[in-house]
Every structure is written in structure tokens, then in C-alpha cells.
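yo, PnuC protein is done. seq:
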Amino acid sequence: MDWVASIFTASGSFLLSKKWQYGWLLSGFANLLWMAYGIWGAHSIPLAVLNIFMATNAIRGFRNWKKGQVL
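structure:
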């Protein structure tokens, strides 16, 4: 599962660097995979908590992107 999450993370980051909105979707899905891996695969609560923060930050970034705000 960690390899799949890594591929989604890298793909999402690449798409965002190209300014493609689908990067947000891939990044969000990657966060869900990392949370699941952190809880069930690695038994690492800090990894799951980190990805909750990252998902929240991605949602904020997506909303700002939709509004056309540049931060």
C-alpha cells in the first residue's frame, strides 16, 4: 500500500506543478491511502495524524485555487 500511496503522491504533485486541477484529487486520494497505511499497515498514529493535516491543507489549497487566490 505504501508504494501505491507514493505513486499517487508523486503523480498529484506532478500534476499540481503543471497547474492541473486533477492533482488535488490524486493528492487527496494519496492522503487517504497514507492514513490507512499509517493506521493499519505501519501502526503509526503520527503518520495518520500528519496526513489528516496534509488533507486539510490540500482542501484549503483547492478552495483557494478555485477562488483564484494566490497566496
